[in-house]
Amino acid sequence: MNIAVQRQQERVIAIMVKAGYTKMRLAHINLTRNLDLEGNTITELANRAAMTKQAMGELVDQCEKIRIVERTADPKDRRVWIVKFTDTGLAWLGELGKAVAQVEGEMVEIVGEPAFEAMKDLLAAYNRAELPPID
Predict the structure, then answer these.
(1) pTM tops 0.85, yes or no
(2) Domain region containing 85
């Protein structure tokens, strides 16, 4: 499964680079897939991505440099920064959605619609399942 996921992600990145997003890296998706349209704190993003605040801060710095996100002061607490998509970031997000759809379409062509839908259903069921404790 890991090889298939890696292949899918590399294909999405290649499509995004061809669309002009040449500074995008796979790690940037780890930030943006966890970022709500209304914005989140770095702590929230780090928790969602299961990474340290420092590592998430580095991703935010990188994405700020390529103008996908920006930090704004939290109106409730000026010590806290809210990370939000920029207009460029929202356009990037739209292109990312198209790239993912294209790759999923390619997967359907390879394995067929029924198998693709079954795979999505099975993975969703696994994600919803309560796992037994590890002894």
Answers:
(1) no
(2) 2-100
CATH number at residue 19: 1.10.10.10
116 domain residue, yes or no: no
Q: Which two tokens stand for residue 76?
A: 């409730």
Is 119 within the bounds of a domain?
no
**Does residue 51 sit in helix, strand or coil?**
coil
Cα Rg of the chain, angstroms? 17
Q: 23-72: per-residue pLDDT in tens?
A: 988 888 888 899 999 999 999 999 999 999 999 999 999 999 999 999 99
- Cα separation, 60 vs 57, in Å, equals 5
Residues in contact with 46: Cβ distance below 8 Å, sequence separation at least 6, in sequence order: 52, 53, 55, 56
